[in-house]
Amino acid sequence: MSEEKAAEAIRIYKSKQEAIDKAFAGQQAKVEDMFRKQIILAQRKYVAFTVAVEADVEKRLKIVDKVIDAESEERKWKIDQEQQKKEREASEAAEAKLREEAEARRRAEEEKARKAELKKKEKARKKMLKERAKVPIPPGYVDVKNSAKLASKLKKLKGKGGSGPVGRFAMCCFSLKKDKAFRAYCEEMSAEFNDNVAWFNCEIKDDNFEAAMLLYEFNDTPAVIVTQDGEVDKYAQFLLGWYKGDEKQKTMKEQIAYHAKRGNEFGLQAVE
Question: Which helix (H) or strand (E) holds 173?
Answer without folding.
Answer: strand 169-175
